[in-house]
Amino acid sequence: MTAPADALVPICPLGALTPERGAAALLPDGTQIAVFLLDDGSVRAVQQHDPYSGANILSRGLVGTHLIAGEGEEPGRLVPTLSSPMYKQSWDLDTGAVLDAGGGETLPIAVFAVEVQDGHVHVSAAPRPGTGGEA
């Protein structure tokens, strides 16, 4: 059964996630995603497929932050990041943009909208437009 692209799919209770650790999940259309509970209590979801290694391993990646420099008078900002457990490329968890391609080609990842409703994590059935590569 395929959910509409704008539908939210229940994934798991929020309490099933461990801060700063990933969990793999499967959307109804068979897409594998990686879900992360960050230290600030927010939840992020991205494609599980690592575009550099070709393996479905991003839920095992390292979560952190990266300072994005501001332009002109604009201050810099910290963004949540994910680093691949295989070759250590890093992505912005909010946009899927590559922050460190490890000297290789720039391969972004798909990011999925997440909502926590009544203590349960729900993820959109399709990636946010304009984020990453294929899910």
UniProtKB/TrEMBL annotation:
<dbReference type="Pfam" id="PF13806">
    <property type="entry name" value="Rieske_2"/>
</dbReference>
<keyword id="KW-0560">Oxidoreductase</keyword>
<dbReference type="GO" id="GO:0008942">
    <property type="term" value="F:nitrite reductase [NAD(P)H] activity"/>
</dbReference>
<dbReference type="GO" id="GO:0051537">
    <property type="term" value="F:2 iron, 2 sulfur cluster binding"/>
</dbReference>
<dbReference type="InterPro" id="IPR012748">
    <property type="entry name" value="Rieske-like_NirD"/>
</dbReference>
<keyword id="KW-0534">Nitrate assimilation</keyword>
<dbReference type="InterPro" id="IPR036922">
    <property type="entry name" value="Rieske_2Fe-2S_sf"/>
</dbReference>
<dbReference type="GO" id="GO:0042128">
    <property type="term" value="P:nitrate assimilation"/>
</dbReference>
<dbReference type="InterPro" id="IPR017881">
    <property type="entry name" value="NirD"/>
</dbReference>
<protein>
    <submittedName>
        <fullName>Nitrite reductase small subunit</fullName>
    </submittedName>
</protein>
<feature type="domain" description="Rieske-like [2Fe-2S]">
    <location>
        <begin position="9"/>
        <end position="124"/>
    </location>
</feature>
